[in-house]
Amino acid sequence: MSVNYGSKRIVVGAHYGTRDWLSQRITAAVMALFTVLLLAQVLLSKGPIGYDQWAGIFSPQWMKVLTFTVIVSLLWHVWVGMRDVWMDYVKPVGMRLILQVFTIVWLVACAGWGIQVLWRL
């Protein structure tokens, strides 16, 4: 005869743990390295920083690719964090789905705007 101690536990999304933890750390490291690189370029520039110098920093193709990588990293970082917040604190499934869809639409819109600004320079 088996003995049941406590209530039955339902585990939802448990397989995300390590992957999400690792993706948060990797995307944070990418963003931190980009910030250090950008700060170094700004601090090492001479004279007042205006539009021309900002455009000069982001005009090389390697900087555009790096900035695009950071935009994607930022979006992934935000998505993982917000999805976890919605899963942990919003219990009604319909409301959670609405918030997740809104988050995805908002992040895609922000990505489109960021990429448009980046490649217009």
**So what's the overall shape?**
elongated
Number of alpha- plus pi-helical segments: 4
The count of strands amounts to 0
Task: Give the N-terminus to C-terminus distance in angstroms.
Answer: 72 Å
Task: Tell me the Rg in angstroms.
Answer: 21 Å
CATH fold-level name: 3 helical TM bundles of succinate and fumarate reductases
CATH architecture: Up-down Bundle
Structural class: mainly alpha
CATH superfamily: Fumarate reductase/succinate dehydrogenase, transmembrane subunit
Uncertain parts: none
Walkthrough of the structure:
This protein is an all-alpha fold and 121 residues long. The protein has one domain (27-120): Fumarate reductase/succinate dehydrogenase, transmembrane subunit (3 helical TM bundles of succinate and fumarate reductases, Up-down Bundle). It is built from four helices and no strands. It has helices at residues 17-44, 51-58, 61-89, 93-120. It is elongated, with a radius of gyration of 21 Å. The termini are far apart. 2% of the residues are buried. The mean pLDDT is 88.
List keywords for this structure.
single chain, 121 residues, mainly alpha, 3 helical TM bundles of succinate and fumarate reductases
Brief account:
The protein is mostly helical. It has helices at residues 17-44, 51-58, 61-89, 93-120.
List the helices and strands and how they pair.
Blueprint: H1 17-44, H2 51-58, H3 61-89, H4 93-120
Helix pairs in contact: 1-3, 3-4
